[in-house]
Amino acid sequence: MLSATTNTAALTAQRYVNSSSSAASSSIAKMSSGNRIVKASDDASSLAIGNKLRADIAALQQSSRNAGQGASLLQVANGSMDRINDILIRMKTLSTQVVNGTLSITERQYAQQEFSQLVNQVDQISTQTRWNGVSFLNGGNKTVGSTNTLPTNRAAGVTGLDATATNFFSNASIGTFAGEISGSVTDVNVTNIGGQQQIDVVIGSQTFRGVVSVGSNNANGSAIVLRSLVNDHNSFTMTINQANNIAAGIAGATALQTDIEDLFELDNAAAAPASFLSGALTDANAGALINGGAASALSAVVRANGATADGTYTVTSAYDLTTDKATIRIQDAKGNVYNQTIEDPAQYGLPGAPSNLTIGFSNGVEITLAAAKVAGLTVAANNFGTSTAQSVRFDVNQGTATTMDFQIGEKSTDLIQINFSSMTSAGLGLNVLNIETFTGGQTASD
Question: Which of 69, 203, 244, 321 is the most exposed, fewest CB within 10 Å of its CB?
Answer without folding.
Answer: 321
